[in-house]
Design a protein that fits this description.
heterodimer, A: 231 residues, two-stranded antiparallel ribbon, 5 helices, B: 434 residues, alpha+beta, 5-stranded mixed beta sheet, 12 helices
Chain lengths: 231, 434
């Protein structure tokens, strides 16, 4: 018996035994897309689920993806807020769109996340740099559920999350530009491996993201004209 | 009766401005106009108030004893009574202003010379002659100016002698004399009750307060004013009390408090802007703004936007500008209209709030010291590949800086930003790409 026919028989048997059950792939929940097509395809419903707490392990391009999700929500006429609990967001690389909140402490960041979620006025609330622990996770989940907003925490602990995601970059996944000597000079892009898991769901994807770098002015006080190279 | 008009030809040379202050203790509004002084009698007992006004004049200066008064429900009747009546005080019965004006010559209505000639030519001598005509006939023969005069002759005076009254902002106060309070909790209790009244008044006006001043009357007969400002206009008692609790702990009272006055300084409408059916976030806008406002009331100005300069050092390039909840919402609305869903998604630098000191093992590459491994307080990290150095230097005197930046890929794939302070030789972890 071919594998395909066995699978078909199994589906028919499941339909017979559990007529009201709906396959996971056909579950449709309201989502906010990440704005990255390759990535949206591996989410259970095509994006971050509304009314649920999702967690994304820090690092490996997590910030880039979540900022893209915020931009997607704002471009759709909704509001997104980024709670920078760790104060790590570099102003030079901040793109206008989401509302940026910089609380003074971890607790204040959690309070901000909860109250903004409960207001129901934000489609996406991203909590970065403030790991929720124990009951704090429960409170955030409840707030997200009550408001119908997407809540994504950049944390490794995922006790009550509906969706878990992680991303990583392999050491050799960077696209380097080399100097004439063959030494590394600049990084153009990085290949990111993303893993999305949920109940009965485990998908992976690989995407290439550009690396934005700071172009240093290389010396001179800012109030002096740069005359290097001038004759 | 609404208008009290006082007339004295001497006021043309010397307006009685010094009398405004005593008059304002009797009537709410006073206006000097040439040889006339107007007083607003609305809601006041007419004869009693008129007598008090006259007494104020005579008590102040004997020259004012020649003042003549006209009291009427229309300004024109009061003015004619004051100017042309033979009596020192003339009360025009309410509803009979037109009858009062009827026997006076039409010239008391102060027509322009051309119009006066026209009236003279058509045989209109008295106010009653003019009032008797139809509007159409006056309009055809005398024009728009004639219609105005015709209206005055009929005691139909639309002039606004007094401007509109400014609305008093809500305030509430409480004083006690038998005891003095020093404890903040009891003061909060009183302030809470006062805010209850003030917030009710604000809600009934459809407004919210943006700034409130609490005046503490002290036992040493001085007053301590403490202004409080909210991030957004609100009539919410809970929001204001949250601010009060934060503020009152910082106030140092020189003496015990014997009274509190709560005064609203600035108000603003609490109504939302015009809706947009294509704006998905419009329905929840007020809730979002309210939440942001409360958050800022609780935690301070945490809603920020970067303002970037051209400083060579990334960590000194950004000044974070605090925005109010309203401004944040306005910005969000603007960006919603201008952003594209398919903007560039890229790994960007994340900066540590303060560069973290590390120890680094290096190797030489074409004369430069390139990091091979680094160690922080927790572990040692092997560097797979490093690009750099990117040298940044500048500043003067104590503010001088010289750094060599390296972009390093670690064994776990992280891309970190290290630098060596060329002035001290120390190494730092400054950030990472994410």
């Amino acid at each position: 018996m071919a594998a395909s026919s066995a699978l078909r028989d199994l589906r028919e048997l499941l339909d017979l035994k559990f007529p009201d059950a709906v396959p996971l792939q056909r579950h449709r929940t309201e989502v906010v897309a990440t704005g990255i097509d390759e990535l949206d395809g591996i989410f259970p419903s095509g994006g971050f689920p509304r009314g649920r707490l999702s967690v994304w392990a820090p690092g490996g391009g997590a910030t880039a993806v979540l900022r893209s999700a915020c931009r997607s929500a704002v471009a759709g006429g909704e509001r997104a807020v980024w709670i920078d609990g760790g104060g790590t967001m570099a102003g030079a690389f901040w793109d206008a769109g989401p509302i940026l909140i910089r609380p003074g402490s971890r607790l204040q960041a959690l309070r901000a996340a909860e109250s903004l979620l409960r207001s129901g006025g934000f489609a996406v609330v991203v909590l970065a740099g403030a790991d929720p622990e124990g009951t704090e996770n429960v409170r955030l989940s409840r707030a997200a559920h009550e408001s119908g907003s997407v809540c994504v925490a950049l944390t490794s602990s995922a006790t009550t999350s509906a969706l878990r995601a992680s991303s990583s970059i392999r050491p050799h996944g960077y696209v380097w530009r080399r100097d004439p000597h063959g030494d590394a000079a600049a990084i153009d892009a990085a290949t990111i491996e993303v893993r999305i898991s949920s109940l009965g769901w485990n998908r992976r994807a690989r995407l290439v993201l550009p690396v934005r770098r700071d172009e240093p002015r290389m010396a001179l006080p800012i109030d002096l004209p740069d005359r290097r190279g001038a004759r | 009766m609404s208008f009290l008009c006082l007339h004295n030809p001497a006021w043309l040379a010397e307006p009685p401005v010094t009398l405004h202050a005593p008059l304002l203790t009797i009537v709410p509004r006073v206006l000097s106009a040439g040889d006339l002084v107007w007083a607003d009698l609305r809601g006041l007992p007419v004869r009693e108030t008129t007598e008090r006004v006259r007494n104020a004049f005579t008590a102040h200066n004997a020259i004012y004893s020649s003042v003549k008064c006209g009291v009427a429900s229309t300004a024109i009747a009061a003015e004619v009574a004051a100017r042309y009546s033979q009596q020192s005080v003339t009360y025009v019965r309410a509803g009979y202003d037109r009858d009062f004006l009827a026997p006076f010559p039409a010239t008391v209505l102060a027509p322009e010379r051309a119009l006066a000639n026209l009236l003279d030519g058509t045989g209109v001598e008295f106010c009653r002659d003019l009032a008797r005509l139809s509007q159409e006939s006056v309009e055809v023969r005398l024009g728009a100016e004639g219609v105005k005069l015709w209206r005055l002759a009929r005691a139909d005076d639309a002039r606004r002698i007094f401007g509109s009254m400014p609305r008093a902002l809500p305030e509430a106060s409480l004083e006690w004399t038998d005891y003095a309070i020093r404890r903040a909790e009891r003061l909060v209790f009183v302030i809470n009750a006062l805010f209850g009244n003030v917030c009710e008044a604000l809600k009934s006006r459809g407004e919210g307060a943006l700034a409130v001043t609490i005046s503490f009357a002290l036992a040493n007969r001085t007053t301590l004013d403490h202004p409080i400002r909210a991030a957004r206009a609100t009539a919410g008692q809970i929001a204001w009390m949250r601010l009060v609790r934060l503020e009152i702990e910082r106030i140092v009272f020189p003496d015990a408090v014997t009274g509190i006055t709560l005064r609203v300084d600035i108000t603003s409408g609490t109504g939302g802007r015009q809706g947009d059916v294509f704006d998905r976030g419009f329905g929840s806008e007020s809730a979002a703004e309210e939440a942001l406002g409360q958050l800022m009331d609780d935690q301070g100005s945490i809603g920020v936007e970067p303002e970037n300069s051209a400083h060579p050092l990334l960590d000194r390039r950004t000044a974070w500008t605090s925005l109010s909840a309203t401004r944040l919402m306005e910005r969000a609305h603007i960006y919603a209209a201008s952003l594209s869903r398919n903007g560039e998604t890229a790994l960007t630098l994340q900066l540590l709030p303060e560069p973290q000191g590390i120890s680094v093992a290096t190797f030489r590459r074409r004369g430069d010291e390139i990091p091979r491994t680094y160690r922080d307080a927790r572990a040692t990290y092997d560097i797979v590949e490093a690009a750099g150095p990117d040298r940044v230097s500048g500043g003067r005197w104590d503010d001088a800086y010289a750094r060599e930046y390296f972009r390093c890929v670690l064994e776990d794939g992280s891309l970190v930003w290290l630098y060596r302070d060329a002035r001290t030789g120390l190494w730092y972890l400054h950030g990472w790409w994410d």
